[in-house]
Amino acid sequence: MSRDASIDFDWADDHYTFRLALGELRELQEKTGVGPLALLNRLNDGTWQVDDPREVLRCGLIGAGMEPLPALSLVRRYVDERPRMEGVKPAYLILAAALFGTDEEELPGKTEAATMTEGSASPPSTDTEPSLDTPPAKSTE
Questions:
Q1: What pLDDT does 4 receive?
Q2: Separation of alpha carbons 96 and 127, rounded Å
Q3: Comparing C-alpha atoms, which of 48, 50, 58 is closest to residue 83?
Q4: Distance between the two ends of the chain, CA-based, in angstroms?
Q5: How far apart, in Å, are the Cα atoms of 90 and each of 23, 40, 53, 103, 135?
Q6: Rounded to whole angstroms, how far apart are CA atoms 40 and 10?
Q7: How many CB atoms within 10 Å of residue 62?
Q8: Rounded to whole angstroms, how far apart are CA atoms 54 and 86?
Q9: How many helices (H) and strands (E) does the chain have?
Q10: pLDDT per residue as tens digits for the range 59-81
Q11: Which helix (H) or strand (E) holds 42?
C-alpha cells in the first residue's frame, strides 16, 4: 500500500497491485453509470450490478500499470468465469483505497473522520456544559 492509494493483495493467480487514479475513476463512472461513492455503496450493500466488480478490478489493474489486454484477460478468467460474489470483496477494497486511502496512509482529518462515522454525522462535542434536560446537581455544602 502506498500514498498514491494503490493497494496490493493476492488475487486470482498471483499477487497484484491495483490503483484507481482519476482517469480510471472516470472510466468506472462511465461504465457503471454512477459515481465512485455510489458504486462503493452498491458493492457494500449488495445492490451491485453484474459488471461492477469486473470493471473495478479491470480498471484497478490498468491503473497500477498493467496493459489493458492482459488486464482484460485476467478479469475474463477470474471474474467472468467464476462465481459472481468472488469479485465483490476485492473490488470493494480497491475502490475504498482509491476514495479513502489505505490504513498505512496518514491522511489529514483521519481521526476526526473516523470518529464522525462511528455513529454521528457531526464531530464529537468537547463542551462540558450541563444538559438542559437534567436539573443541576444540588450542592452538599
A1: 86
A2: 33
A3: 50
A4: 60
A5: 20, 11, 8, 16, 53
A6: 21
A7: 21
A8: 10
A9: 6, 2
A10: 999 999 999 999 999 999 999 99
A11: helix 36-45
